[in-house]
Design a protein that fits this description.
alpha/beta; putative 2-phosphosulfolactate phosphatase; 10 helices; globular; sulfopyruvate decarboxylase activity
Length: 256
């Protein structure tokens, strides 16, 4: 496997699509909080998650029949801007909101400040998987047969953010443990792995949540009253579900 990493979406080369001849799998990371929310929502029974970069696009996609012409049921609007819920949306961007009672059997239309932009950047890959610490082991299992994997960190407002780099490093570390010398890394991947080992020599949910509180993304959440989400997004390997979107069915993410 060849594994390459972009510590922010603009490092993909074009800023709008992965700059490579062929990427089998793009693994998109927005630990705080879009990919964690998507993981929780899929595990709670959401049937599909459609990501949109712009709020206006999300509103349009939520109209009855906009995603599925045969469906007359509206989709649920979800997401945030600058960590806060969007006026008129049914859900914000906290994992605590996405319970089976509220989202099971529903299609979700999601737009966020950073995460859904990273999904758009990764759209040239054959398939896109959404990774969080919650589904870390499930993601590793899902990418093992890929020849080329591109890890795309969402970052925070265009800058590198520590929580995303830590997850990239954890993914790389586990891939290397499984594949050994059969894994080829670029320099950014090696940097992410080193950062993961430096910050989390003995990772646990508590140590992760503490590390999140020191990152740009974590400080932003604390500032607007969402500190409890740091622990929710640090619950390693609690959700065995991976949201996946493929070129063959490019509308939205479904559970794997």
């Amino acid at each position: 496997m060849r594994l390459i990493t972009s510590l922010i979406p603009s490092q993909t080369g074009t800023g709008t699509a992965i700059a490579s001849d062929k990427i089998d799998v793009a693994v998109v990371i927005d630990v705080l909080r879009a990919t964690s929310v998507a993981t929780v929502a899929m595990a709670a029974g959401a049937t599909e998650i459609v990501t949109c970069r712009e709020i206006s696009d999300a509103r349009s996609r939520a109209l009855p029949g906009a995603v599925d012409p045969e469906s007359t049921a509206p989709s649920l609007l979800c997401g945030e801007r600058e960590c806060r819920p969007i006026d008129g949306f049914q859900f914000g961007n906290s994992p605590a909101e996405y319970t089976p009672a509220l989202v099971a059997g529903k299609r979700l239309i999601l737009t966020t400040t950073n995460g859904t932009r990273a999904v758009e950047v990764a759209s040239a890959a054959d398939s896109i998987m959404l990774a969080s610490f919650l589904n870390l082991s499930a993601v590793i299992d899902a990418i093992m047969d890929a020849d080329t994997v591109h890890v795309v960190c969402a970052g925070t407002n265009g800058d590198v953010t520590g929580e995303d780099v830590m997850l990239a490093g954890a993914i790389i570390d586990r891939c290397q443990a499984r594949l050994g010398s059969a894994l080829e890394l670029d320099d950014a991947s090696a940097i992410a792995k080193a950062w993961w080992h430096a910050r989390q020599p003995t990772p646990s949910p508590a140590s992760l949540a503490a590390a999140f509180s020191e990152t740009a993304g974590g400080r932003n959440l604390i500032r607007v009253g969402y500190e409890a989400d740091l622990a929710r997004c640090a619950a390693i390997d609690t959700v065995p579900v991976v949201p996946v979107r493929t070129r063959k069915s490019p509308t939205g993410f479904t559970a794997r």
